[in-house]
Amino acid sequence: MKGLLCILLLLVSNAFMTLAWYGHLQIKQWPMLAKLSLFGVIALSWGLAFFEYVFQVPANRIGSDETGGPFTLFQLKIIQEVVSLTVFTLITVYIFKTDKLAWNHAVGFVFMIIAVFFIFKKW
User: Fold this and answer.
1) Using CA of residue 64, residue 66, residue 71, residue 76, what is the dihedral sign?
2) Per-residue pLDDT tens for 44-58?
3) pLDDT tens digit string along 60-87?
4) In angstroms, rounded to a whole number, what is the distance separating the alpha carbons of residues 83 and 98?
C-alpha cells in the first residue's frame, strides 16, 4: 500500500513540477498571465513548485525503505524519472498541445522500462 501511495503522490507532485518548469512557456494562452514580468513568472513558478514539494517530500518518505517504505533510493529515483517523463508527456501532448508522440518517444519509453527492470532486479 505504501508503494502505491508513494507513486500516486509522485504523480501529483510531477504535475505541479511540469506546470512550474514548463507552464510559463505556454503563458500566451492565458492573457492575464501573459503580462507578467520575468519576476512575476518566477514567483508564479515558485508558487507551483511549493505544491510539488508538498507532495514530493511525503512521497519519498512514505516510499523509502529507510522510513518503512518498500523502495531503495535507487528504486525511488527510477520511479521518479519514469513518473516525471510520463506526466510530462501527457501534459505536453494533451494540455499544452505543443508536440505529438512519435516512434522515437516510444523507443525511449521502452528503454525506461528496461531501466526499471534492471534497477528492481535482485542479482
Assistant:
1) positive
2) 999 999 999 999 999
3) 999 999 999 999 998 999 899 899 989 9
4) 20
